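Query structure, 436 tokens:
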């Protein structure tokens, strides 16, 4: 259950509360359809991750799978990108938190207050993480439960205040002018919804710290995706049914929708839920992101060993501090820019992971334990095609950031001292698995 709540916290965050306005602006009532389409798409990738997580018990997720499938350099690059993704997610949630606070009081628009609170939150989470996973598990479970209760209250009560007239127009007039305009609007909304599901890839990152990960993680990945898809679709439906076309006027549409339905207490309740939700995802990121970079250093010595050093609470303190510093730098960027960077980094880790599934199915390396992807190569092939579609929605600025991160990581790779004993041990392990 703790892994399940970690997954819920990792996915449902600021996007669920702040982005319905953007999605509705592009697709109106069809936003619900776009949400389901994005969920089906991401679910195919999720099933690939479920298959891979049943093959490995080590921490690292995407980088670990690529390392075993395509070698050291590919795994290293994926590890850096996934770490960058984690830092961007962590920073985006903190920026979202401050965006919510700005709607409550203008004092939060002051730069000193803005960055003071952001840095204070990062410092607080860093201190908590330094005391190990026991405290992390407790905070994560509490925030996940509070978040789901808030969402369920909104859906159940809000459903009684839906007005059918708000379900028109079904689609924006600009999107009805031809196939090109339709897919332009659909693609814009799809990219935003896609972001709202990207957190699933962080569930296997700390696998080594979980009980029976090869059997539990696949179950959690599937159950979390089903849960989140249902909640997102219903939230969007209730919000549209309550606000209609007025959704585009509000930066916090879910909170305003509940306020319109039940009064001011509804607004306060949802805002409180939003704050808990955003803090929960940021907190999950503060835990998962350092675990990833520590696994790069500890499991296969892809980074200097000192990065993976742990304290007496079994917390990778150097990795925790490094992740906090990078996040502090990223909080200077806008929320939407960070979202675009997250989608790009997600795409970069999805493609090699999907290809790894195809390779392992073909070579029969690293047998499954507890879950096996059905329909042979059908799901990986579809996941690969749809993931590549995401390339059409990236801006040049986002692609440039991705290129810079990849190039800097590649340059650093050749200056990192390789641990020959670790590599030799890994090669023996690979040979043993191939013989099986």
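Result returned for the query:
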């Amino acid at each position: 259950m703790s892994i399940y709540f970690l997954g819920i916290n990792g996915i449902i965050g600021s996007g669920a509360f702040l982005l319905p306005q953007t999605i509705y602006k592009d697709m109106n009532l069809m936003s619900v359809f776009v949400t389901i389409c994005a969920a089906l798409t991401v679910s195919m990738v999720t099933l690939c991750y479920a298959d891979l997580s049943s093959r490995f018990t080590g921490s690292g997720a995407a980088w670990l799978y690529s390392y075993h499938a395509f070698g050291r350099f590919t795994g290293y690059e994926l590890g850096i990108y996934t770490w960058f993704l984690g830092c961007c997610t962590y920073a985006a949630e903190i920026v979202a938190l401050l965006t919510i606070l700005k709607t409550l009081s203008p004092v939060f628009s002051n730069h000193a207050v803005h960055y003071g609170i952001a840095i204070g939150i990062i410092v607080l989470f860093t201190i908590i993480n330094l005391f190990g996973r026991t405290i992390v598990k407790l905070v994560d479970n509490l925030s996940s439960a509070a978040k789901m209760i808030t969402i369920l209250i909104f859906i159940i009560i809000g459903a009684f205040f839906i007005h059918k007239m708000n379900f028109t127009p079904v689609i924006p007039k600009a999107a009805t002018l031809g196939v090109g305009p339709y897919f332009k609007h659909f693609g814009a909304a799809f990219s935003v919804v896609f972001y709202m599901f990207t957190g699933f890839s962080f569930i296997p990152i700390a696998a080594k710290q979980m009980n029976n990960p090869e059997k539990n993680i696949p179950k959690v990945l599937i159950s979390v995706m089903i849960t989140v898809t249902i909640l997102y679709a219903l939230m969007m439906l209730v919000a549209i049914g309550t606000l209609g076309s007025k959704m585009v006027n509000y930066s916090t549409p879910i909170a305003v929708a509940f306020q319109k339905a039940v009064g001011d207490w509804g607004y306060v309740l949802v805002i409180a839920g939003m704050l808990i939700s955003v803090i929960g995802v940021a907190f999950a990121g503060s835990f998962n992101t350092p675990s990833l970079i520590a696994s790069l250093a500890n499991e296969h010595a892809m980074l200097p060993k000192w990065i993976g050093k742990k304290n007496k609470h079994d917390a990778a303190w150097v990795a925790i501090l490094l992740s906090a510093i990078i996040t502090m730098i990223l909080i200077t960027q806008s929320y939407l820019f960070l979202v675009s960077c997250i989608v790009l980094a997600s795409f970069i880790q999805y493609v090699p992971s999907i290809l790894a599934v195809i390779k392992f199915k073909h070579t029969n390396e690293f047998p499954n334990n507890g879950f096996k992807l059905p329909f042979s190569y059908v799901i990986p092939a579809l996941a690969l095609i749809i993931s590549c579609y995401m390339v059409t929605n990236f801006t040049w600025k986002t692609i440039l950031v991705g290129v810079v991160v990849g190039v800097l990581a590649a340059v650093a790779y050749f200056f990192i001292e390789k641990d020959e004993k670790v590599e030799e041990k890994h090669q023996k392990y690979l040979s043993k698995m191939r013989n099986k």
